[in-house]
Design goal:
With 288 residues, the chain is α+β, with helices and mostly antiparallel strands. 37% of the residues lie in helices and 33% in strands. β7 (207-220) and β8 form a beta hairpin.
């Protein structure tokens, strides 16, 4: 082989090696991010089929899922403007107080719909979030995919806890206290979302929307499940939402257990085959 031909061959070989190296590093980076994601599978159940008159789960459900005896109340406050400013941008601001706990839980979520239900679709959603200036690999936040009956949603979540004055429940918070409590916690990513101070500006205009839900845990085979029963006031009446969920550490675990649970619920005739928009329903009922 002539020297010029040899040089071209060497150059081509080096390009191939470089491309393979880049592809490998990208694949490793994607797998690293996927390993950070936890999963929460959620199904909504038909209230008229699973609730008794006193708004607890029927004996059949209690037996099927080996329910604990105690239902625990959880107070929840959402902070949102009447125009749904935060929700329209994908943000959710929540304060939650579990019965028996001394501190309230503060949670801020950036929610991004996933167009599909595969790992590649999740990575695409992560890219969309990153393009808006959120680092999904940051130690300050966590990644979770909410996987419903027909929709996945990626949540980037910031969490903290705190005790405010001598309050014993969120019912004692007025709107000003709730805003002050949350404003100290709001992450920089939300504060400066569209421009510097964006988050705190709209938080100052927010209203407090509060509900109390009831939670009970159970077991299906080897999986711990959680039932949340939420009452949403609707023009003098009330709508009941019954949500059944479980958590998983990997996509494969979530997918397999989700398939098994869906089949079980369908066989029992209690599955609602849509994804109820719980937060939206709560805001609809509580915002002026």
């Amino acid at each position: 082989m002539k020297q010029s031909g040899l040089k071209r061959a060497i150059a081509l070989f080096m390009q191939i090696v470089l491309l393979l190296s880049i592809g490998s590093s990208v694949g490793c980076a994607e797998q690293s991010v996927m390993d950070q994601i936890s999963y929460e599978v959620k199904f909504f159940l038909a209230p008229d089929k699973v609730l008794t008159e006193n708004h607890q789960l029927t004996e059949a459900v209690a037996n099927q899922f080996s329910l604990e005896a105690e239902y625990k109340p959880i107070d929840v406050i959402y902070l949102e403007t009447p125009e749904r400013t935060f929700q329209s941008e994908g943000w959710v601001n929540r304060i939650r107080w579990k019965d028996g706990k001394k501190k309230a839980e503060l949670t801020c979520k950036m929610r991004c719909p996933v167009d599909g239900e595969g790992p590649a679709d999740i990575l695409t959603a992560l890219d969309r979030v990153a393009s808006r200036g959120i680092d999904p690999r940051s130690d300050s936040c966590s990644l979770e995919v909410d996987w419903g009956c027909s929709q996945m949603t990626l949540s980037v979540t910031w969490e903290d806890s705190g005790k405010f004055k001598d309050y014993q429940s969120l019912e004692q918070f007025n709107t000003e206290d709730a805003i002050a409590f949350f404003s100290e916690f709001m992450p920089t990513e939300e504060k400066d979302w569209n421009n510097p101070g964006w988050g705190t500006e709209y938080l100052a205009r927010a209203q407090k929307v509060g509900i109390t839900m009831s939670r009970v845990k159970g077991i299906l085979e080897d999986t711990e499940v959680t039932f949340d029963i939420t009452t949403i006031p609707m023009d003098g009446a009330a709508e009941k939402l019954v949500e059944l969920s479980f958590k998983a550490d990997s996509y494969s675990e979530a997918a397999e257990k989700r398939r098994q649970l869906a089949a079980c619920l369908e066989e029992s005739g209690i599955l609602l085959k849509d994804d109820a928009l719980k937060t939206q329903k709560i805001l609809d009922a509580g915002l002026d």
